[in-house]
Amino acid sequence: MADTATGIAPQAQDAAPEFPMPRQSRCPFDPPPALKDLQEQGPLTKVRLWDGSEPWLVTRYAEQRAILGDPRVSADTDQPGYPTKASPEAGEGKLSFIMMDDPEHARLRRMVTAPFAIKKVEALRPAVQRIVDGLIDDMLAGPGPVDLVDVFALPIPSLVICELLGVPYEEHEFFQEHTKTMVRTTATPEERGVATREVAGYLAGLLGKRLAEPKDDLLSSIAGRITAGELTHQQATEMALLLLIAGHETTANMIALGTLALLQHPDQLALLRETDDPKLVASAVEELLRYLHITHLGRRRAVTEDIEIGDQVIKAGEGVIMVNEIGNRDPEVFADPDRLDITRDARRHVAFGFGVHQCLGQPLARMELQVVYGTLYKRIPTLKLACALEDVRFKTDAFIYGVHELPVTW
After folding, report:
1. Residues 304, 305, 311: CA angle, nearest 5 degrees
2. Using CB atoms within 10 A of its CB, is residue 267 exposed (0-12), middle (13-18) or buried (19+)?
3. Going by C-beta distance under 8 Å and a sequence separation of 6 or more, which residues neighbour residue 125?
């Protein structure tokens, strides 16, 4: 039984369980059962990673937010105790400002905040609506079944981020193929290195062109920081690479996985399909973000000063992993958390993180998902899976969870 004095699950005092834990194939939308067990036993548990290190796993919502909002924890991968990635093959490395601390994190982040402000994002809504409608037109005009990932889920955010950055969409197959390798946990360091260098080299070349001939796009704005002496060419390339990856991989997976979840919950799909209320569409987006939460290896931090969480002291030099997928299923915050309910108020979820490092692009992701979820099922009301659920290949081999393909028909 759990130590009620410390709130630590017994594994933390005995043999630490291995992390990450396996998911149940018959419950592809739910966190691993072991995470639920650990959450019930206490908010903090020591776990063992592939390299033998034992960081703290944080499974409850309140403790996750407390740690993510605490300036005594560091996102810097070079800090002592920072939890390594999921496997020795996965490799390490910084990805611009998301793996930095303030004040440098804040300095770099401020350079690209303006295009993701809510008013700027809302101005893009009509253009995103045209993209979504155009892709649906193409689907309906062609033969079925189709792979929804290939013809719909991936093109939408790719087109949008390409337009924002100023990356030619003709090159989308090039960068999509390489970014798939970059986020695949089973990729070797060599494979990830090659993929990263290919995309970074391409973006560095585009930045060079924008230095010579600026345009009205985000790459030109970033290039202007080089001219002003605020960024090196390398820093600017890393920033562009982060925005390109984050701008399409996460949203594309949410579009496909969210659609599959709704197809498996026809009552919720019917509510969404039949509504004309934009507030219910927005509510559905928040609930799907809470229910699915596609980053399953946890937000990782290193503690730089002792922190007391409940009755437990996390010492300086120890690592912590906030598994937000189980935090979003905390029954203390979300009643009946394993039920998909698009009418619930799920806005408190931690799918975008919390604190200074919460997702910069969340207004854009929300808007894109609202357009997609508010349009697709109305225009194709008979949309359905073209295969058995057990034949769908889930991305258990990637940092971002989703499906490799989603065969659908109507």
Report:
1. 125
2. exposed
3. 367, 371
For residue 233, give every residue at least 6 positions away whose Cβ sits within 8 Å of its Cβ, in sequence order, or none: 204, 207, 208, 226
Residues 182-194: tens digit of each pLDDT:
777 778 888 888 9
Length of the chain: 410
**Three-class SS state of 155:** helix
Indicate the DSSP class of residue 3: B
Q: How many CB atoms lie within 10 A of CB 346?
A: 22
Supply the pLDDT for residue 95: 66
Q: How far apart are CA 146 and CA 128, in angstroms?
A: 21
The predicted structure's pLDDT at residue 30: 95
What's the mean pLDDT in 321-339? Answer: 97
Token pair listed for 153: 């889920």
- Cα 247 from Cα 96, distance rounded (Å): 14
First to last CA, the chain: 51
H/E element, 321: strand 319-322
What are the φ/ψ torsions at residue 308 (nearest 5 degrees)?
A: -100, 120
Whether 301 contacts 74, CB under 8 Å: yes
CA quadruple 95, 100, 102, 106: dihedral, nearest 10: 0
Entry pTM: 0.90
- The torsion angles phi and psi of 399, rounded to 5 degrees, stand at -70, -25
SS (H, E, C) 67-122: HHCCCCEECCCCCCCCCCCCCCCCCCCCCHHHHCCCCHHHHHHHCCCHHHCHHHHH
Strands 407-409 and 146-147: antiparallel
- The tokens for 330 are 């905390």
Separation of alpha carbons 6 and 25, rounded Å: 33
